[in-house]
Amino acid sequence: MESGKLQIDRLRHRILAWYDGAARELPWRVGPASRRRGERPDPYRVWLSEVMLQQTTVATVVPRFQSFVARWPTVEALAAAPEAEVMAAWAGLGYYARARNLVRCARVVATEHGGRFPPTSTELRRLPGIGPYTAAAIAAIAFDEPAVVIDGNIERVTARLFAIAEPLPAGRGAIARAAAEIFPSDRPGDLAQALMDLAASICRPRRPRCSECPVRQDCRAAEAGLAEDLPRRRPRAPRETRRGTLYVARNARGAWLLERRPASGLLGGMPGWPGDDWDRGAQGDDPAGADGASGPPLPGPWRAAGTVRHVFTHFTAELDVHVAEVAGDAHPLRGAFVAAEAFDPAALPTLMKKAYARAVTALSDFESADGPP
Ligand code: SF4
User: Fold this and answer.
1) Whose CA is nearest to atom 4 of ligand 1?
2) Buried b (16+ CB within 10 A) or exposed e, 14-46
C-alpha cells in the first residue's frame, strides 16, 4: 500500500512535469526552461502582476501590465510617479485603493529598502497593500521561498484534488492543510504558477477538463464524480441594489462639472459626477456627500438622460443620470468645472464613464430635438 507521502510526491511531480511542457508565456513570468538556465523573475514585475490580477483576468491584465512597465519600468520610476497619473492608468483594473497602495508600496520599497523588494513573505506582508496571498506568491515566485500560495483558483484545484466537500468559507481550513501538503517543493514558484495555469486552462470553475488533466489519476473529486460540484459555498445573501442620481453638467464653454470623491471609501480619491447619497452604504462606506450635500450641484434645468447600472462587490448601483447645459459663468454648489481640453473621460472610474457616455448621447439627442438655438 502506497504511503500518503508517496502519493503527494507523485502528484507534485506530475503537476511540475506538466508545467514544464505547458506553462503559459506571460510578460511577468520567467518560464521553466529559462529558470533552469538560471534566469530569475524581476520581483517588481511579479508584484505588479499579482496586484493587477487580484480582481481582473489574465487576458485583461496582460496589455495593461505591458503599458504600465513601459511607462514605469522600475519600482523607483513608479515611486516617483504622481499618484493621479497612476490612478488614471489603473482605471478598469478594480478597486482604486489598490492603485493608491501600489504607489505607497513603491515609495516604501524605493526609500526604505533601497529599491529592492524584501525577499521573505513575512517582510513583504509589512508593505502597503500586500496581504498574505500576495506576499506568499511574490516570495515563492521571485525568491523561491517555500511559501504556501492559495488564491481562489488554487483553492478550487486543491478542494477537488482532495475532495473537500465542506462549504466555503468554513472549508478553507481543510483546503489550507491540504495545500500545505502539496507545497513543500524545491521549485515553490514553479509549483504555484503550475497550479495557477492548471486552474486557468484545465481545472476551470465550470466544465473542468478532467479527461485532459495531468493529475486525473490523483484526483479524488474526479474519481467520485464530484469535480464540478467542488468547492461548495454557503449560499450568499442576495446583493442589495442601491438607487440614486448622478448629475452631469456641461457649461457653455464645453467644461464639465466634476468633483473629487473623498479619499477613503467607494471609488476613493477618484474624479466623478456629483450625485445624491447612493453610495451611503449599510456597511459603513464613506458617502460621497459626507458634507451633507446630496441634491443637484446647480439649479439646472436638469433633464433625465436614462439609467446606468454597475455591480460593486457588495451592492448593485442603479443610477439615474440627469444632464444640464448651463451658462459659462454658472457657479456650482460643489465640485468644479474642468475645461474640455483638460478633461479625460478615460481617467474616470467605470461607473462614471458609463454615466458620461449616457450624458453625451442624451445631450446630442436633445440638441437634435431642440434644433438650432
Ligand atoms: Fe480538476 Fe478534474 Fe484535474 Fe481533478 S481531474 S484536478 S477536478 S481537472
Assistant:
1) 219
2) bbbebbbeebeebebbbbbeebeeeeebbbbbb
pTM of the entire predicted model: 0.72
| Alpha carbon distance 134, 127 (integer Å) | 11
The CB density around residue 74, as the number of other CB atoms within 10 Å, is 15
Q: What is the pLDDT of residues 270-286, one digit of tens each?
A: 899 999 888 876 443 43
Distance CA 127, CA 106 (A): 9
* Candidate CATH numbers 1.20.1260.10, 2.40.110.10, 1.10.630.10, 1.10.340.30; the one for domain 4-229: 1.10.340.30
Q: Is the Cβ atom of 182 under 6 angstroms away from ligand 1? A: no
What's the rounded Cα separation, in Å, for the pair 62 and 165? 34
Q: Where in the chain is the domain with CATH 1.10.340.30?
A: 4-229
| CB-CB contact of 32 with 70 (8 Å) | no
Architecture of domain 240-370: Alpha-Beta Complex (3.90)
Would you say the CB of residue 178 lies under 6 angstroms from ligand 1? no
Q: Which amino acid is at 309?
A: R
- pLDDT tens digit string along 47-72? 999 999 988 899 999 999 999 999 99
Q: Which residues are catalytic?
A: 50
Q: How far is the CA of 191 from the centre of ligand 1 (A)?
A: 16
* Average pLDDT of the chain to the nearest whole number: 91
Other CB atoms within a 10 A radius of the CB of residue 77 amount to 14
Q: How far is the CA of 164 from the centre of ligand 1 (A)?
A: 13
* Cα separation, 124 vs 131, whole angstroms: 8
